[in-house]
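Batch manifest, entry 17 of 40.
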Amino acid sequence: MPLSRTVAYIFVLTLVISPSQAAEPVAKLRGHSANVHQAVVSPDGKWIASASDDKTVRIWSMPEGKATAELEGHTDRVWTVAFSPDTKLLASSSFNGEVIIWTVPDGKLRSRLKGHHGWVMSTAFSPDGRLLASGADDKTVRIWNIGNLKEERKLEGHSDYVKSVRFSPDGRVLASASNDKTSRLWSVSGGKQLATLKGHTQRVNDAVFIPDGSLLATVSDDRTAQLWKVPSGERVKELEWKSDFGKSAAFSPDGKVLATGGYEAIQLWAVAEGRLIREIKGHKGQVLSVVFSPDGSLLGSASWNGDNAAKLWSVPDGKSVAVLSGHTGTINSVCFSPDGRYVVTASNDGSVRIWRNKE
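Output type: structure tokens
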């Protein structure tokens, strides 16, 4: 299939949003003493886990926001947290190369996974929960067996930091994105490299699978998103915009829309045609996080060093639904609860907040 190229002409397709009424948080979760890099909701919707520069992980109840466990064991800043699909385990990663597995909800340390040398930038459980993948600034991807808590394989090939790792929905393919300007597809069962995805001209910041697993989207500092076939790695579309770096991406639950986060703007793309549906402006600063609600009707977003607010947008028309303001520092992550009733944000002000979604 020939490569198609789509350029977003902002003066035609940009939708500028006026401020909407600020929402009030259901709970303000305080306890961390430094930046909170990430907060995620467990698959069963009962718990929140947060990762902080204070070298701790915390588990909180949903939606009350009650602190249930303070997980101490890391000796350096904690960057990521990820729940296993059955919510029984939690993985956290640190700047010193260590990944720790904890039990949920009591927060007991189950195992230290050692192998990386440097900042572990991304972690992900396989869909069946049997494996954990991690990517680090030592240029490697590692796959860990959760059954015996040992390294199953080390994947080498990248020549710079590995920033993102994700399993395909069927768990057969692992994608990695790197500062070396490439993404790679790996066979999970054998560790073989299936494809090197070359086409970006600057570092690749994120790689996400479409829900049916047939495509991978990558976003880069070169102001493009690329769509690739899985597992062949054939590039089928290039989506280009005029605002700054692309830091984040997410597919809608039905796979029809791709959201990308640029500087002060979010782009919504029709996946099948590679067509820009609209560009939404309303943030100040780089958009670090974009996420669809479980039913696909809303998009959540958060930006860096700008307005210290997360925002909710209506996907069909791009209109602002709510501004989640109150944090006093950059919001590093935003996510929905599995039932879509709540939104959770994590900030450099050291707090996590729970917001009610009034959709």
